[in-house]
Specification:
By secondary structure, the protein is of the alpha+beta class. The protein is built from 16 helices and 18 strands. The strands form four sheets. Strands 15-12-14-13-17-18-16 form a seven-stranded antiparallel beta sheet, with helices on both faces. Helix 1 runs antiparallel to helix 2. The two termini are 45 Å apart.
Length: 504
Amino acid sequence: MFAKIIGLLALCLPHVHGGDTSTALIERAGPNLKTFLSEPGRKWCPGTQVFFPGQKNYASLTTQRWSIYEAPSYLAAIKPACVADVQKVVKLCAELNIPFLPTGGGHGISTSFGKLKNGLSLDLGAFKQVEVDKAAKTATIGGAATFGDVFDPLYAAGFEIPTGSCTCVGFLGGTLGGGVGRYQGIHGLIIDNLLSLQMVTAAGNLITVSATENAELFWGMRGAGFNYGVVVNATYKVHPLTNGGEVQVVDLIFTREQNETFFKTLASFQGTLPPELALLTYVAWNATYNGTVAILDVSYPGPKDKFLQLVKPFTDLKPAYTEFQTLPWNRFLRQLGFQLNDLVCIKEQQHSMYSVGTKNLSSPDYIGTFAKYDELFADYPDTRLSSFEIQVFSNQAVMAVPHDSTAYPWRDIEAHVTMQMSFTGSPTSPGAVTANKVAQELRTAFSKTSGYDQLEVYVSYAHGDEDPAAWYGKDNLPRLIELKKKWDPKDIFRYANPLPSNYP
């Protein structure tokens, strides 16, 4: 039976080395394939589904991408209901050279994903479980669960875990590159809390990866994990709620006239953040102020009096708007930043991101970037959904982890600056072209003043055109490449900021 499935899919999907199968052929073969897969003896698990673009409810029944800029294209999507079917799909794709991409939250930003053309989406949308073991103080999280899915179950059990900055990002996808976020000063990166992975290899085998099983692969999965397999679930250590789960937050808006004093104040925090304090700045267009503003959101899971003292340098600047809140841990990410999370998480938009990791907080660069965005927004209104972001998170717990214990290379980064260019028109429109040009220039400028000798980029924030050494570190690459040769010799996992076959 499985041989018949392979044969039918061979008709319906393109081979990497033999030319593309036409969309017309897929459309003709699709109904036959769907009929066959519906037969009782198909050997797929109950609930496994196959979808084709253009069919009714395709978009609502499959995981859609957050960014459609230079996105992959698919001729079919398979949504396994069991791990055994994930294994079957991986084996099928490996045997027939079918280009495919595992999809969890669908939030990957790199343009490298766009190199997959007319392929297969391995949609992990059925794997969204979040299981908390209170006695063991662990949580097991499914391959498609998002950060947002994790908050309520953990909070109800009295625990927390570090997450990224948006609720809609896949938890496992956000893990495999390292996992930076607001709580990293307390608990380290997300990978520093990872205990084990259940993973389907390129050979279609289901294995456990941990410090005691496949330990060398465990090293590589923590920082370069996209390159080695499909993670169906992962188990993490979790922590009692900091400050009883109560988080102090403040959102502040600084106008064009205030931006210089604000950025000088922000830069004064270099190297001084207590573990609990997180500063996240957005430069964006704001319709209320009819212009470019700097928005600062600050979070602190600690006592309010101490928080007020910590943020006093910013409130003393008399921002145009200030809003204080005390929020529970399971709600703070959605509600801080003037609830920008919901806007940021809208799917199927044009986003082009460039990023630099920096050791220095450079107020001259921030001020100059504000001016460039101000000019861009004035000249090209279709780019006004773009933003410049500065993530300043404490790295105390991050630095406490030995550098060589994981493949994540950039533990001493003080700030991640991202130029996220978004546009409503064509990606070849004058506004989009100019926005990308501005972002490239800013990436070069920030790299020169970053405090590092080379470009360092958190791999999950990469544009996709950087040298792999910027993502993985030149010292790590030989070791990562050897792991690739062992675990994925056919290079079937090659679309997420892929490892080179050799380096240099």
